[in-house]
Amino acid sequence: MQASSKQLYQYPLHLIFHPFDGYWELKYERNQKTTLLIALMIMVLLIVTKILQAQYSGFLINYNNPKYLNSLLEMVYVIVPVLFWCIANWSLTTLMDGEGKFSEIFMSTCFALVPMFLVHFPWIWLSLAISEQETAFYYFSNAIAVCWTIYLLFVGNMTVHQYTPAKTILTMLLTLVAMAFMAFLCLLFFSLVQQIVSFVYTIYQELVLRG
Amino acid sequence: MVCLLLFSSAALPASADGEADAYHYSYYGDAVPAPAAYEASMIITGRTLNISSFKEPSDMHVTPDERVYVLDSGNGRIVELDRNFKLVRTIDSFKNAGKQDQFKNPQGLFVTEKGDLLVADSENHRVVHLDDKGQLVKIVSEPKSDLLNEDFQFKPIRIVMDKGERIYVMAAGVFDGFMEFSADGEFSSFIGANRVQVDPVEYLWKRFATREQRSQMVMFTPTEFTNLDMDEEGFIYATSGDRGKDPIKKLNAQGTDILRREGYAAPQGDLRYSTEGGASRLIDVDVGDSDMYSVLDSNKGRIFTYNGDGYLLHIFGGIGNRTGMFNTPVALERAGDRMLVLDKALGEITVFETTEYGRILHDAVRSYYNGEEDQSSQLFAKAAEMNANLEYAYAGIGKALLRQKEYAESAEYFKQSMERKGYSKAFLLYRKELMREHFSWVMSGIFLAAAAFVTVIIVRRQKRRTTNAGIK
C-alpha cells in the first residue's frame, strides 16, 4: 500500500471506530513502515496535547502549579508508560505464546491512544469557556476517552497476539503487574547508582582534602 | 527529578525554616515573603512590675476589658495587671474553711466576664474557683464517676468556664476529651475526644508481632489536647500537639468539630518543615473577635492567625534572642489589638502591637465578617497593595467588582485568588453578557457555517456521481 497524506489520518480514524478490522489490517495487510510512522506521529501529538493541556487548560480544571511546569517531564510522562507497557507486554506474551512482534505491540498501543488525543485536544480550548457546573462534561468525556482507549488496547492485544478474550484480559492484568515490577527494578537500579556515585565522590573528596 | 525539586526549593524567596521573619503560605503551599503584621513593642517581667520575677509562669488570661492575669506557677500566685500593664494586685493565697490555703504548681487559669478566677491547681488535684475579690466560691476536687477508672488521678492542666458556669477541664493523662463539670462542681461527662489515628504500616507490623514484641510497642492512643479557649458564643477551640489530621478544632456543645476549613490548606501551623525541625506543635489557641483565631507553635515559636473560614492571615514570632522572639512560649492572649505571648523559661511577657498592614488586614476581615462588603473590599485592596502575595485578599476585591457588574475584572481577581467558585460565577455572567452583545453575528456566523458545510457535501456528492457515471 502506498502512503498518501490522506491515509495518514484516515487509517487511525478508521481503526478507532472499527477496531477489529483496523487491527487486523495493522497486523496482516498494511505496510509496517507507514504504520510505524503514523504510530510515532500519534505519540508526538499526544505529547504536544499533554504539554498544551498543562499550560493552557482553563483555570477551573487546571490545578497545575505554573512554577513547576516542565515540558520535558510531560514528555517523559507519556513516553515512559507507553514503553513500559510495550516492554512488559512483549516480555509476557513471548512466554504466553502470543503471536505479536514488538513493533506490532508498540503500534497497536499507540493507535489505542488516538481517542486520548482526539478528546483532550479540543478540551484544552473548550475548557476556557466553561463554568464550574460544566466541568462535569469535561470529566465525563475524559472518562469516555480512557474507557475507549482501554477497549482499543484490549482489541489490539487480542488481534495482535491472536488470544481469546479471557486470555487477553489476563495478559493485560499481568502486564500491569510486570510494569510495577519494572518500575521497582528501575528505582532500585537508580538508587544503587546514586549510592555508588556518592561513594566515589566521598572518596574523591577525602583524597582532595588529605592532599 | 529529585535534583530538580531540591533546586527549586532552594530558590524559594523565603523558606519556612529560613531567616525571613514574616512569611506567608501561597495557594500552592510555598512559603512566600510577607510584611510583618505585628511588632514587639514591650516586654513585661517581674522587675518592670516591681515584684519578684516570674518563676515558670504557665498561663495567662486577658478579659474583654483588657485586664491581664498571669498565672505565676513557680511562685504559686496570680498577678493581675490593668490595661496599661500596671500591677493591680497579686493573689497567692485564699481562705479555705477558715485557714489560709495556697496553690501548688497551678497550670491553668481562666477569668470569667464577672471577674471570677478559675485556677487549675494541678499538684493539689483540684480546681479552685475564686470570685473577683479573691474569696473562695468552691473547690472542684477528685471527680467520682463510673466513667473514670478506680485509680484515676485528677490533675487539671487547663480550664475554661462557659456562660452557664459549666467548667471544662483539660486534665493530664485523659484521652477521652475534655472533662465537663456542671455549675455545682459535679463531673458530668467527657466531650470532644480525639479519634485514634492508626498508621497502616504500624498496624501491619503489630499484626505480625508476637505478644512480647507487641507489649514493647507504642499503644494506639488518641492524641491529647494541649489547650483550649472559648469564644463569645461558647464554642470551645482546642489544639492538639501531635500532627494529627486536624490539630485545631472548634467544638460545639456536643463535642463535634465544626471548624471551617475553607482556606487553601487546613489550619495546622507550618505547612512546610524540615524532617529534623519537625512539624508545628500547637500549644495554645486564642479566639479574638470576628471569628479570627491565633495558635501558638511551641516548636518554632510562631503564631499563626486564621480567619473564621480557615484562611491563613499572617505569621509572626520565632525562637531566638531578639525582641519579638521567644525561648519557650507557652501562652498566647489577645488584648484588643495587642497580642501577648508568655515565655515560661524567661518569665516574661512580650507585647506585640499591630503594624499598619496588620491593622488593615484585621479591619478588612472584620468588615467582611460584619457584612460591610464595600469597605472590606477597599481594605482588602489596600492589604493586597502592601502584600501582593496575599492571594486571599483578591477574592474580596473580586466580590466587590462582581456586585458592580464588572464581570471580566471580577473573574480576573478571583483567578488571582485561586477562588474557583467565585471565578465560575463571574465568568458565567461575563459569558452571558458577551453572548448577548454579540448574539446577532455569532448566530449568523453559525448559520452561514452550517449552510457552507451542507453545500460542500452536496457539491461533493454531485461530483462523485458524475465521475462514477464517467467510469461506467
UniProtKB/TrEMBL annotation, chain A:
<feature type="transmembrane region" description="Helical">
    <location>
        <begin position="36"/>
        <end position="55"/>
    </location>
</feature>
<feature type="transmembrane region" description="Helical">
    <location>
        <begin position="137"/>
        <end position="156"/>
    </location>
</feature>
<keyword id="KW-0812">Transmembrane</keyword>
<keyword id="KW-1133">Transmembrane helix</keyword>
<dbReference type="InterPro" id="IPR006977">
    <property type="entry name" value="Yip1_dom"/>
</dbReference>
<feature type="domain" description="Yip1">
    <location>
        <begin position="14"/>
        <end position="183"/>
    </location>
</feature>
<dbReference type="Pfam" id="PF04893">
    <property type="entry name" value="Yip1"/>
</dbReference>
<keyword id="KW-0472">Membrane</keyword>
<feature type="transmembrane region" description="Helical">
    <location>
        <begin position="75"/>
        <end position="93"/>
    </location>
</feature>
<protein>
    <submittedName>
        <fullName>Yip1 family protein</fullName>
    </submittedName>
</protein>
<feature type="transmembrane region" description="Helical">
    <location>
        <begin position="105"/>
        <end position="125"/>
    </location>
</feature>
<dbReference type="GO" id="GO:0016020">
    <property type="term" value="C:membrane"/>
</dbReference>
<feature type="transmembrane region" description="Helical">
    <location>
        <begin position="168"/>
        <end position="193"/>
    </location>
</feature>
From TrEMBL, chain B:
<protein>
    <submittedName>
        <fullName>NHL repeat-containing protein</fullName>
    </submittedName>
</protein>
<dbReference type="GO" id="GO:0008270">
    <property type="term" value="F:zinc ion binding"/>
</dbReference>
<dbReference type="InterPro" id="IPR001258">
    <property type="entry name" value="NHL_repeat"/>
</dbReference>
<keyword id="KW-0677">Repeat</keyword>
<dbReference type="InterPro" id="IPR011990">
    <property type="entry name" value="TPR-like_helical_dom_sf"/>
</dbReference>
<dbReference type="Pfam" id="PF01436">
    <property type="entry name" value="NHL"/>
</dbReference>
<keyword id="KW-1133">Transmembrane helix</keyword>
<keyword id="KW-0472">Membrane</keyword>
<dbReference type="InterPro" id="IPR011042">
    <property type="entry name" value="6-blade_b-propeller_TolB-like"/>
</dbReference>
<feature type="repeat" description="NHL">
    <location>
        <begin position="102"/>
        <end position="133"/>
    </location>
</feature>
<feature type="signal peptide">
    <location>
        <begin position="1"/>
        <end position="16"/>
    </location>
</feature>
<feature type="transmembrane region" description="Helical">
    <location>
        <begin position="439"/>
        <end position="459"/>
    </location>
</feature>
<keyword id="KW-0812">Transmembrane</keyword>
<dbReference type="InterPro" id="IPR050952">
    <property type="entry name" value="TRIM-NHL_E3_ligases"/>
</dbReference>
<keyword id="KW-0732">Signal</keyword>
